[in-house]
Specification:
The protein has 11 helices and 14 strands. It is of the alpha+beta class. It folds into 3 domains: 115 residues; 88 residues, no CATH class; 132 residues, Rossmann fold, CATH 3.40.50. Strands 4, 5, 6, 7, 8 and 9 form a 6-stranded mixed sheet that branches. A 5-stranded mixed sheet has the order 11-12-10-14-13. The chain is globular and about 70 Å long. The two termini are 18 Å apart. The N terminus is likely disordered.
């Protein structure tokens, strides 16, 4: 039970809860750097800097929205022509990079050059205002993770699991895609437990239940499973399965270029996740809901809870509604719906639902704080 002195402190903290909106949320699924981007430049001239501003703004819009299609919106195209007006700060740096070599070049020492870069930081508020005025949805920093299982089959019919050691090009491409779209992509460790739970043949057959059970140890929010056959003629043929929200969707893949083959499913699932979670800033009517939380045993837990709740993208304001021992109720004003809040909280493991939070009495979402 919380003592009387703690209850008094909670009243004081209630008054200052607005200041907690400035603290970052600590979460394994948080993505960072949405409003920053680094661009390689040839020099520090005005023309080169303006080109970099435009390229960086395109990259930031893509990360913040999650979807390529918004780059073709008239408001975004106009903003790209005046990208410097959204810049908050810049900095230059240099580093030694390898010079790309032709695919069939001899394995000699790879030449290097000194490459100049510009780091462009855009003003969050200006970008958000731009998107809000254009009614373009913004994807919160709290994003669902994607666990990737993949089996490769060569022309001889031999199958192997995708690993970073033997399939560097595929893993690097997926990691670069994850960085460009700000989506957490993770790979199984493929240790003894993984290989005992899931065989190459099971992945190749896209055995949904076996894949779900083998993925439980990773706690991923979605699962992308792929099979890729390298034909004798050089074509890439395969199937993909995406499991999200209890639904499995299967779609095929075909290409002659490996990067293009990998891009198609990654772009498809990222668009799906972005359209599911993204919201138009300040365009949705506000809804007020109550959040009942058990297990708040001390001031540290209370402060951590408020910091977490205040940092959720849907939450506009937070106020204390009731206090009873280790249970408290918060009143939240949302830019969105309670269903969307439920889905957003489900991406983390800090709040665990008690019974069915979506069907709680009096519209109360009921959770236990576990951090």
């Amino acid at each position: 039970m919380l003592g009387t002195s703690f209850s008094r402190v909670l009243i004081i903290l209630q008054i200052t809860v607005v200041f907690l909106l400035w603290f970052p949320v600590v979460s394994a699924l948080q993505v960072t750097g949405l409003y920053d981007h680094r661009v390689a430049v040839n020099n520090e001239s005005d023309a080169e800097r303006n080109r970099a501003f435009r390229e960086a703004l395109k990259a930031v819009i893509l990360k913040v929205t999650g979807e390529h299609r918004w780059l073709e919106h008239p408001s975004i195209e106009e903003a790209l022509g005046n990208a410097q007006s959204y810049v908050e700060a810049i900095s230059y740096s240099s580093e030694t990079v390898e010079v790309p070599q032709p695919p069939n070049s001899l394995p000699l020492a790879v030449p290097t050059i000194e490459q100049r870069f510009i780091e462009v930081n855009f003003a969050n508020s200006l970008i958000d205002e731009l998107l809000a005025n254009a009614n373009i949805p913004v994807w919160d920093t709290n994003r669902p993770s994607v666990l990737v299982w993949m089996v490769l089959q060569n022309a001889a019919g031999e199958r192997t699991m995708l690993t970073a050691d033997t399939n560097t090009q595929i893993v690097n491409y997926m990691q670069n895609f994850a960085s460009e779209r700000a989506i957490p992509i993770i790979f199984p460790v493929l240790d003894f437990e993984d290989r005992q739970n899931l065989s190459e043949d099971s992945v190749w057959a896209l055995e949904e239940q076996a894949i779900i059970e083998a993925s439980e140890r990773y706690g991923a929010d979605s699962i992308l499973t792929g099979r890729l056959h390298f034909t004798a003629s050089g074509e890439l043929v395969g199937l993909w399965q995406f499991i999200f929200q209890g639904q499995a969707e299967v779609f095929d893949g075909f290409d002659e270029d490996l990067n293009a083959y990998l891009y198609a499913p990654l772009d498809r699932i990222t668009n799906q996740l972005a359209s599911y979670f993204a919201l138009v800033p300040e365009a949705t009517s506000q809804q007020v809901v109550r959040l009942r939380v058990e297990g708040v045993s001390n001031l540290s837990a209370y402060s951590a809870l408020l910091t977490y709740i205040s940092g959720l993208g849907l939450v506009d304001t937070v106020s204390m509604a009731a206090l009873d021992g280790e249970r408290l109720e918060l009143e939240l004003s949302l830019v969105g719906s309670s269903d969307q809040l439920y889905e957003l909280i489900a991406l983390d493991r800090d709040l665990l639902p008690i019974q069915s939070s979506q069907a709680g009495s009096r519209g109360v979402l009921h959770y236990r704080w576990t951090r």
